[in-house]
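2024-03-11 09:14:02 INFO queue: dequeued item NADPH-dependent F420 reductase, len=221
2024-03-11 09:14:02 INFO validating residues
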Amino acid sequence: MRIGILGGTGPQGRGLGRRFAMAGHEVLLGSRDAARAQQAAAELAVAGDVTGVANADAAGAEVVVVAVPYEGHADLLASLADALEGKVVVDCVNPLGFDKQGPFPLDVPDGSAAQEAQRILPGSTVVAAFHHVSAVLLDDPEVTDIPGDVLVLGEDRDVVARVIDLVPAIPGARGVYAGRLRLAHTVESFTANLIAVNRRYKAHAGIAVTGLPDATAGTPA
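2024-03-11 09:14:37 INFO prediction written
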């Protein structure tokens, strides 16, 4: 599959790009600065087929992952709405703030970053996924097992299933259907809890849903 990553030079975008490339996908690593994207792509070339491009060019891929900081989320998507028409858009943005007490979820008028994306991109199919996988582990080629579950949320069952099929690009990970897009707020917000856990225990913990038969975990209800 040809996968574009908006914000592909950031920690999460770069890590996902590495794993998608290692799994055999063609990756367009996007950035506001095409030269910066090309440099990052050169560093990831050992992983597989990775090309550094401007975000607008990454938006031309079959599936487009949004991995930009939340403060630039709405403006970037609005600027690329035409290019993203008819595309599958996978939003993994976590709207978080930080103060002296640590991380906390931000209030998003649309309910979540994913719902904001769907409002801005009415001609695209937005799916929320990949919020809780450690960027550090994703971008470390020495790490060969990243166990845990990736919660995938969306309205279109077939598209959700396609995104779930991408999850095994992360070795040890499993895709789990976690509801409609209106539930994305709780998934995005829980990232603040994970950051607090990881800071306390000096870890890169993810999440795991127990009690699901492997054969049905990825099937939208």
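2024-03-11 09:14:37 INFO annotate: Residues 2-201 form a domain with the Rossmann fold fold (CATH 3.40.50.720).
2024-03-11 09:14:38 INFO item closed
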